[in-house]
Structures are given as structure tokens and as C-alpha cells.
Amino acid sequence: MRLSRCIGLSAALALTGLAVTGCGGGAEAEERPGSGKPSSPSSSAPSAPASAAVPEKLAPPAVELPGAAKVVRPEIAPANGEKVGVGQPVAIVFKQQKVSPELRAGIEGRLKVRTSPKTAGAWHWAESKGDTLLHFRPEKYWPAGTEVSLDARLGKVELAPGTAVDRDRRINFTIGAAMINTVDLKAHRMTVVRDGKTLRSIPVSGGDEKKFKTRDGIKTILAKEGRVVMDSRSIGIPRNHPDGFYGSYDYSMRETVSGEYVHAAPDNAESFGKENVSHGCIGMSTADAKWLYGLSLKGDVVQVTGSSGKPMDTFGNGYGDWNLSWEQWLRGSALGVRTG
Question: Which residues, if any, are the signal sequence (predicted)?
């Protein structure tokens, strides 16, 4: 049986820019607009701690709007106190809210990211399905062990005419080990590297190259969901169709909101290391999936190569942030590099 999506989504996935809806499919199962085809992906090497202060562009004063007719509560990820992988951006989502471009520099000036060791980074604005997204990342992946805090002093700050943020917020989180999982779909293998050391080369099967191509490019683990029920009806395929399926699959880690996972796929065992037969997921043996699940964190990197599918969506279908070069990333920032 060929594999694909689950039935439901974690509420936390709304932070990636999509509302919680039924699951989608591989790159060919469903088209979801992003913010353009990515090019020149960022280097996979971790960012080096800043050795000197980076000159910062002076932020204009933010516009405050006491007694606003509409008050917005932005969603922020990761959660306070979380340990996350080196690919996890700081993500602020203004759900179903436009943010006036002329106000964005002042808003960025109210957001202070502090890091230890110091690591420079930048904010980037994007829009997806009516949401305004504001993400912060370094030039390269976070150094393992970095302590990060966000002081979001946005209370009463204007977002658009008549609309302001409800209150200030502060979060602290930690970057875990540098887990970089590289999937070569031509070789049908996943190479797992942790803190620069190759731990295992896992035989895998990816999305069927004729029907359900896996998205190419850099993704992150959005959630560790354990046992997930996957149902072909969620991507419009009846269960009794030749491509239909229904079942529970263990050690499932979500990569995209539309439904690409890394998970155990014992019913595809004959294809591991040989051919791509899934509906977009990366399947492997139960033993390998259990081992990988135990080592993984939300925010760990999964880089897919060798797929003829469309590129990973930059925004709106998970965290495709790292598919933008640093130059592209800075073009989406109002203030540019911040010292951290």
C-alpha cells in the first residue's frame, strides 16, 4: 500500500501560516501557493557566533494606537521554554491580518532578539492566505546550544488603520543538537548527521515520481505526532481507488502542513533503498523510524534532494525559510541585520 497524509493537524501548525484544515498531499497531489520559487538555498553550515557588533539600521518609532477598534493577539513560535532544532525560526503570525508596509520598520524595532552566544540575524515579512508572517533567522542554521530570547514590546502598536496588538510578550527557548537529515531520493537514502557526525544512512522510499512527488528543498520538523491515521480521502482519493489507503503509522514527524511526513512505513519495506512509491512522505523501517524519532526535535532540518517535484514552499506550508539565500532574506526585512 502506498502512503500519505493524516486526518488532523496539530493546532500549533497554524503558526506556519495555514489554518488547521484537512491534510494535503505531495507536491503533485495539491498545489499550494508560496512566495515564489526559491533559489540559491542558504548554506547548511551553522551560523558562527558574531565576533563583532553588526551596525544596525536605526528603527523609527513605532506608532501606538491606544483604544484601537480592533485588537490582535499574534501567535508566536517556538513556545516559551522549548528546546528546538537548528532550523527553527522565530515565527510571529498575525492571523487574517494585513500589516501596513509603512509601519513594519517601527514594528521590527520593537522586537528584540537576544542570543547567547551572540548570533546575528534578521526579520523577514511575508503574506500567506490572509495572514501576515514575520520570521527571524540567522544567515545559516543556529549554532547548537544557543540560548534565544524574544522581547516583543508590541502592546498597543498599530498594525493597520484601527488595529493594534493586544500586549507585550516575551519567550525564551534553547537550540538543541545540530540534526541535519539529508534525503537523496535518487539514491533512496537519508543520511543523519548530528553535530557534524554521520550517525546512520537509512534506506528510504519517497514520493512516487509519476504521481505524488516529494517537495524538493529544505524543510524542518513541524511536529512529532507519534501514531498518525492516514486516509487518502483527505487528498481527494477514495479509499477503494487503486491509489487509496487508510491506516495508522508510527513515529510520524510532520514536515509540511499539506501532509509530508517522515514515518515508519512497514508496508513499503520492499521499496526502501530501491524506489519511490509513496504519496509524498519519506518512509522507512519501523526500527529506523523509532531510532530517528527518539533523537529528533521540532525544528530539525530535513533537506530533500533528487526529487523532480516542485520546490518546498518558502512560506505557508511549513518552514521553508532556509530555501532563501541570505540576500533574498534581507530583501524581506525592514531593518536588515540585527546583532542578537
Answer: 1-21
The beta-strand segments (E) located in 16-81 are 70-72, 75-77
Contact 2, 271 (CB under 8 A): no
In the chain, the percentage of residues whose pLDDT exceeds 70 is 84
Q: How many residues does the chain have?
A: 340
Q: Which of 135, 188, 279, 281 is catalytic?
A: 281
172 and 230 together in one domain = no
Quote the CA–CA distance of 110 and 338 in Å, as a whole number.
12
Give CA angle at 192 (36, 200), nearest 5°.
Answer: 150
Range of the domain at 299: 11-15+22-30+177-321
Could you tell me the CATH number of the domain that includes residue 204? 2.40.440.10
Is pLDDT above 80 for 235?
A: no
For residue range 19-64, list pLDDT tens digits in order.
Answer: 332 233 555 444 433 334 444 455 556 665 554 455 789 999 999 9
Which one-letter amino acid corresponds to residue 276? N
pTM more than 0.85 = yes
Q: Verify whether residue 188 is a known catalytic residue.
A: no
pLDDT at residue 1 tops 60: no
Q: For position 170, which CATH number holds?
A: 2.60.40.3710
Name the 3-class secondary structure at 92: strand
- Characterise 51 by phi-psi region: left (phi > 0), alpha (psi -120 to 50), beta (else): alpha
Of the residues 135, 188, 263, 279, only one is catalytic, namely 263
The grid cell for 312 is 518546498
Q: How many CA atoms lie within 13 A of 123 on its CB side?
A: 27
- List, for residues 87-115, the tens digit of each pLDDT value: 999 999 999 999 999 999 999 999 999 99
- The answer to whether 23 is a known catalytic residue is no
**Cα–Cα distances in Å, from 270 out to 150, 184, 278?**
47, 18, 12
**Mean pLDDT value of segment 121-128:** 98
